[in-house]
Design goal:
EC number: 1.1.1.44
Oligomer: single chain
Distance between the termini: 67 Å
Bound molecules: nicotinamide 8-bromo-adenine dinucleotide phosphate
Catalytic activity: 6-phospho-D-gluconate + NADP(+) = D-ribulose 5-phosphate + CO2 + NADPH
Structural class: alpha/beta
Function: Catalyzes the oxidative decarboxylation of 6-phosphogluconate to ribulose 5-phosphate and CO(2), with concomitant reduction of NADP to NADPH.
Strand content: 5-15%
Protein name: 6-phosphogluconate dehydrogenase, decarboxylating
Strand order of the largest sheet: 3-2-1-4-5-6-7
Shape: globular
Pathway: Carbohydrate degradation; pentose phosphate pathway; D-ribulose 5-phosphate from D-glucose 6-phosphate (oxidative stage): step 3/3
Length: 478
């Protein structure tokens, strides 16, 4: 046995991850259901480091130093179970199976429990950054036991992206499925970010009347400021791109139906179960879904909207600056919601996740990497029990300064008939959190009226019910 690590599943992610390990001086055993992929990898990239190609599961396991570290990089779902079932009987106590696929955290909890009973460490690991990240440095979010991280951490940290301060973008997130959970929320936040950026583009295009090329310039300008991020950077690239076949802006020749693979939807489904509002992510998932409903959109195409001219050139400039503020404030809200969701799951499952560390490891390697994340890291460093990012002094000041512009942008969007579900939901959340009284009091009254669901009072302890069909006298129920 000569290999420090093994990778099974050599499609794009697994191959790139294996090459990343090899380039960092680790000997990597490589295995794939279809052996031709294994030989192709070694033929094409064998010179990058030490690979041990294995055709059978037995040879693969025999190639690994003990305790064995075996990474699974296959299609998430049934294929992952199939691969676990194939390898688990060949492993010994103390060995580690690392699932680097995009597994649902509930599957990871189930697999971890089953393998723990056999003495095998199952490490559900979120890996972010797509194929390029896997090759050149991803953000890595391992769950599983503390003990497994001792044996695995240094290897993973060596291939992870490095943040600007040189820190590896990899940390032991917490036990069992903590890693896959935060990876899911990361993807949800990514959906929300993309939606907010899309809304900013739509406003600049259809209210300000900017061309895609001009919007690309605007985004480049924003990227030099507090919105500095990978997503803003690539947005400018996409908007500046011209379609070779037609000479038109690329964005105008792409069908306007956004697809999804499911991690955004999982985030929202899970948030509903946990009772944590992630309206920014939910609106982003729904916006993609609306875009894909051709039939609904065709049926509604003739509905009336407002008649509005583009803003004048001067107004458009000032409007663009306000859109930047609305985008920033909405982004703070969607990150605040995402972090609350992680905190809620951490409490629910006893994961004890370090919230600041999540921001720290997402500064590099992943799709939401941004200067902004360093601010979140500092906010949690200043107060590890911060109830919401909106309560951090720095964020509170910035969002407070942005709120006039934010309201004005949402108002303008409504007046012009441009849908901004992300901006609007974020603003509604902000206003709901800061409200002194919410109409939830009325909701409780209604619930008590039709279902005797009881209510609490502002002036006395206990639960109460009003006998609505009788004298309307009040009884204390608890
Ligand atoms: P795919 O998700 O396309 O999976 C292809 C791999 O799964 C091949 O190696 C294939 O083997 C293997 N496989 C399948 Br399919 N069924 C199998 C089975 N029953 N038994 C054994 N092997 C089986 O690969 P990918 O795009 O590289 O992604 C790998 C994982 O990484 C996924 O979970 C994905 O969600 C996750 N991920 C992807 C990205 C990304 O940007 N693509 C980013 C982050 C995470 P074969 O060659 O024999 O068909």
């Amino acid at each position: 046995a000569t290999a420090q690590i093994g990778v099974t599943g050599l499609a794009v992610m697994g191959s790139n991850l294996a090459r990343n390990f090899a380039r960092h001086g680790h000997t990597v055993a490589v295995h794939n259901r279809t052996y031709a992929k294994t030989t192709a990898l070694v033929e094409e990239h064998g010179r990058e480091g030490n690979f041990v190609p294995a055709e059978s599961a037995e040879d693969f396991v025999a190639a690994l130093e003990k305790p064995r570290r075996l990474i699974i990089m296959v299609k998430a779902g049934d294929p992952t179970d199939a691969v676990i079932d194939e390898f688990a009987p060949l492993l010994d106590e103390g060995d580690m199976i690392i699932d680097g696929g995009n597994a649902h955290f509930a599957d990871t909890r189930r697999r971890e429990k089953a393998l723990r009973e056999k003495g095998i460490h199952f490490v559900g690991t979120g890996i972010s950054g797509g194929e390029e990240g896997a090759l050149n440095g991803p953000a890595i979010m391992p769950g599983g036991s503390e003990e497994s991280y001792k044996a695995l951490g240094p290897l993973l940290e060596s291939i992870a992206a490095k943040a600007e301060d040189g820190a590896p973008c990899c940390v032991h997130v917490g036990p069992d499925a903590a890693g896959h959970f935060v990876k899911m929320v990361h993807n949800g936040i990514e959906y929300a970010d993309m939606q907010l950026i899309a809304e900013a583009y739509d406003l600049l295009r259809n209210v300000a009347g900017f061309t895609p090329a001009r919007i690309a310039e605007t985004f480049r300008g924003w990227n030099a400021g507090r919105l500095d991020s990978y997503l803003i950077e690539i947005t400018a690239e996409v908007l500046a791109h011209t379609d070779a076949a037609t000479g038109r802006p690329f964005v105008d020749v792409v069908a306007d139906e956004a697809e999804q693979k499911g991690t955004g939807r999982w985030t929202v489904q899970t948030a509903l179960d946990l009772g944590t509002p992630v309206s920014g992510i939910a609106e982003a998932v729904f916006a993609r879904s609306v875009s894909g409903h051709r039939d609904l959109r065709a049926a509604a195409r003739e509905l009336p909207g407002p008649r509005r001219e583009f803003l004048s050139a001067d107004e458009a400039e000032a409007f663009a600056a306000r859109v930047e503020e609305a985008l920033y404030a909405s982004k703070v809200v969607s990150y605040a919601q995402g972090w609350n969701m992680i905190a809620a799951a951490s409490a629910e499952y006893g994961w004890d996740i370090d919230l600041g560390a999540m921001a720290a490891i997402w500064r590099g390697g992943c799709i939401i990497r941004a200067a902004f994340l360093d601010r979140i890291r500092s906010a949690f460093a200043a107060d590890p029990a911060l109830p919401t990012l909106l309560a951090d002094k720095g964020f509170a000041e910035e969002v407070g300064r942005a709120q006039d512009a934010w309201r004005s942008v949402v108002t303008t969007a409504v007046a012009h008939g441009v849908p901004t579900p992300g901006f609007s939901a974020a603003l509604a959340y902000y206003d709901a959190l800061r409200a002194e009284r919410l109409p939830a009091a009325l909701t409780q009254g209604q619930r008590d009226f039709f279902g005797a669901h009881t209510y609490r009072r502002v002036d006395r302890e206990g639960s109460f019910h009003t006998r609505w069909s009788g004298e309307r006298d009040e009884e204390r129920t608890a």
